[in-house]
TrEMBL record:
Signal peptide: none annotated. The lineage of its organism: Eukaryota, Metazoa, Chordata, Craniata, Vertebrata. This is Immunoglobulin superfamily member 8. The gene is IGSF8. It comes from the Eukaryota. InterPro entries: Ig-like_dom (IPR007110), Ig-like_dom_sf (IPR036179), Ig-like_fold (IPR013783), Ig_sub (IPR003599), Ig_sub2 (IPR003598), Ig_V-set (IPR013106), IgSF_V-set/TM_domain (IPR051102). The chain crosses the membrane at residues 568-596. Keywords: Disulfide bond, Immunoglobulin domain, Membrane, Repeat, Signal, Transmembrane, Transmembrane helix. It comes from Sphenodon punctatus (Tuatara).
Length: 601
């Protein structure tokens, strides 16, 4: 096994080939591969006689002795390898793999510089006579490793042997909706024409790195096409993920709107590709470096105290703390809001840092309540809500709600994350306001043209100063809805509606808590059921108003009776109309007779 010998001759004639003789096939050379990588060289035989299970032997001719064949491995004899290949065959570094009965592959797991040479695949004959070719040859050239991959700046060349960098990755802590930017430098010093592919991938924190555990985020292929897949494909189509080449060596990945599931260790993988003589592209080497270990800080919100017990008019104050807030940048923003009950907005600090009160806390009825929402310095992510004079209507469950946004290319804000605190309870011992109201007509019988008076007598039982607002409403057959006739606000300002007849309406106060509605020149169109509604308002130290209660009276019927002349007017009209009709009829008859006689004459 340790001696050298010349391989058996392989006679070949053109006529033999053309007549379908045995032929051994190998890929055309030269094949370029990188030192330290693996290679598989296929070999198959066709147009042979004998069994389908053919035998194969591999030889190599080294450049130092191009005429001497060195036995590497055989399917026939396990003792076939020469001494210099024996240990490598025993360790599995060099092996022969049968693909099928008439096809095998020579496999070398880790190429060495001395593995360069001419490789011959020989098939011992099973034919009845020598006819065709019994071996094929191809050339293998082993190139030095010239691929460099680094997460450092261009110009540095860290020595990366194997598939990873020895230095630990940079640790980054980002918040939801922030932008992750990673750079990678990749170059090849090969003298051959090669192409590079560069991709960024992520593996779970603390997980071993490999093809099975590394999920590709985005990559540029050897043909310069940028590709991605899965949920990253959706982000790439939405222009939230990009990969760009900066100069000749540097690649930059930008991932926007990161989420908690984006946490992990990010790697840059570079592959070097070369085109074989048969036109196929082969990846001859691949290297990977860890770019950054990323921890996504999730948006969390908590608030205190969990419960408040107040009296009407006391100050209400809550504290909200949020972690994982994005920095306010042109591309990211957040809001902090307090909500009560089923999402009713109390106050909000918008994306520009401006405080906005909910509609129920700033309108004409209640006034503008003294509510503040401010960021507490120097504590990051701490905000306080304060309502100066709490009202009974402020009772309920309060939550602090934080929302994170990113700004899309069209300047539109899109929510990417939100979180809310546990509910905080507010209880209040309030002083009750007891209301009573009664409506009646000043005159039981009303005739058309009279002034109808609807009085509203109010009773209030409260220890607080209370102002009342009064309104009169009518339900009429001609109107499908209840219609407001007149009202008096808590400030004493009257508001009058128009009547169908065009007549006047007035209101006045005839007692301490007695208000009167007057309908002047009442007409049948004013008939209907009338009631008055009363609302009690309490004013608080912050000058805001609180609706302490409302009540409405029973209805009274306004029906204008017809006058005596109205009862005679209709018969008079009927009599006059009848007389006119009879007179005209007689006159027409006489005229017709006279004209008839006149014609006869």
């Amino acid at each position: 096994c340790g001696s050298l010998f010349l391989s058996p001759p392989a006679p070949l004639s053109l006529s033999a080939v053309l007549s379908g003789a045995r032929e051994v096939h190998l890929p055309p050379g030269p094949l370029y591969r990188i030192e330290g990588t693996s290679i598989s060289i296929p070999c198959n035989v066709s147009e042979y006689e004998g069994p389908t299970l053919q035998k194969f032997e591999w030889f190599v001719y080294r450049p130092a002795a191009p005429d001497i064949s060195i036995g590497m491995v055989s399917t026939k004899d396990p003792k076939f390898p020469y001494a210099i290949f024996g240990p490598r065959v025993q360790s599995g570094d060099v092996s022969i793999h049968r693909v099928r009965g008439d096809a095998v592959e020579l496999r070398i797991k880790q190429l060495r510089t001395e593995d360069a040479g001419i490789y011959e695949c020989y098939t011992p004959t099973t034919d009845s006579k020598y006819h065709g070719s019994y071996s094929g040859k191809t050339e293998l050239r082993v190139l030095p490793d010239g691929l460099w991959v680094s997460a450092a700046s261009p110009g540095t060349k860290p020595s990366l042997r194997g598939r990873g960098a020895a230095s630990p990755p940079l640790q980054l802590t980002l918040t939801e909706s922030q932008e992750l930017e990673l750079s990678c430098t990749a170059l090849s010093e090969s003298q051959q024409h090669t192409h590079l592919s560069v991709s960024f991938g992520v593996s779970a924190p603390e997980a071993p790195v490999g093809r099975q555990t590394l999920q590709e985020v985005i990559g540029v292929r050897r043909d310069f096409a940028v590709e991605t897949d899965g949920r990253y494909g959706e982000q790439h189509r939405a222009q939230e993920l990009s990969l760009a080449k900066l100069g000749d060596q540097r690649y930059r990945m930008v991932l926007g709107r990161i989420r908690p599931e984006d946490a992990g260790t990010y790697h840059c993988t570079a592959g070097e590709w070369i085109q074989d003589p048969d036109g196929s592209w082969q990846q001859v080497t691949e290297k990977r470096t860890a770019g950054a270990g990323t921890l996504i800080s999730q948006l969390l919100v908590w608030a205190s105290p969990p419960e408040l017990r107040l009296r009407s008019g006391d100050a209400l104050e809550f504290l909200c703390n949020a972690s994982g807030l994005p920095s306010r940048t042109p591309h990211a923003a957040y809001t902090v809001a307090w909500e009560v009950g089923d999402g009713l907005l109390v106050a909000q600090l918008d994306t520009e840092g401006v405080v906005v009160l909910g509609e129920s806390y700033a309108n004409r009825e209640v006034g503008k309540r003294h509510i503040s929402l401010q960021k507490l310095a120097p504590a990051p992510g701490s905000y306080s809500l304060r309502i100066e004079s709490a009202q009974p209507g402020d009772v309920g469950d309060y939550r602090c709600v934080v929302r994170a946004y990113v700004r899309l290319p069209g300047a539109e804000l899109q929510e990417v994350a939100s979180a809310k605190s546990e509910p905080l309870m507010v209880h209040m011992k309030s002083e009750a306001v007891v209301l009573g109201v009664q409506a009646w007509l000043a005159t039981p019988s009303i005739y058309r043209g009279d002034t109808a008076e609807v009085l509203c007598n109010i009773s209030v039982d409260s220890t607080q100063a209370v102002r009342v607002a009064v309104g009169w409403w009518a339900e009429q057959e001609e109107e499908p809805l209840v219609k407001m006739v007149a009202s008096v606000s808590r400030e004493g300002v009257a508001e009058l509606s128009s009547r169908a007849s065009g007549g006047a309406v007035s209101v006045d106060k005839v007692g301490l808590l007695c208000h009167r509605l007057r309908i002047h020149g009442v007409e049948p169109s004013d008939a209907g059921r009338y009631h008055c509604a009363v609302t009690a308002w309490v004013r608080y130290p912050d000058q805001s108003w609180y609706n302490a209660g409302a009540i409405k009276s029973r209805s009274v019927i306004v029906y204008p009776y017809a006058l005596t002349m109205d009862t005679l007017f209709i018969p008079l009209i009927v009599g006059v109309s009848s007389a006119l009709f009879v007179g005209i009829t007689v006159l027409v008859s006489v005229t017709c007779c006279f004209m008839a006689r006149l014609r006869k004459r």
